[in-house]
Design goal:
The protein is built from 5 helices and no strands. It is mostly helical and about 130 residues long.
Amino acid sequence: MFGDMPSNFGHLKVHDQQLVRLGMLAERYFSDDPNTCLLKLRQLTELLAQLAASKVGIYTSPDEKQVDLLRRLQDKGIVPREVGALFAEVRKAGNDANHCLSGDHRTALLGLRLSWQLGVWFPRTFTAPAFKSG
């Protein structure tokens, strides 16, 4: 679909191809449509949280609200408070983008940065503690 276009989310391919697809779409839409960028980042971070829950055996359903899933992940000590705050910020920006049709370049750039940080947190937590991303 995208060829070999480099992405800041390419390293997530080993975890789920959908993560890379959503990250690449967010990057692609950033300049022309920051609102859509934020929606894709929201989807990406929802999937990351679901995968995290799955890794530790507490995933229940795709119907569970993100806020509830994140609370459970934090309560179990899987998601530290600082990481939870990153998830929450992307979730809120995605909600605003969806329900208020908002989303400027500044918010979308912040969302890309936060989502990238979450994309680094995930492999460090579940597969490669020494993982470094360029």
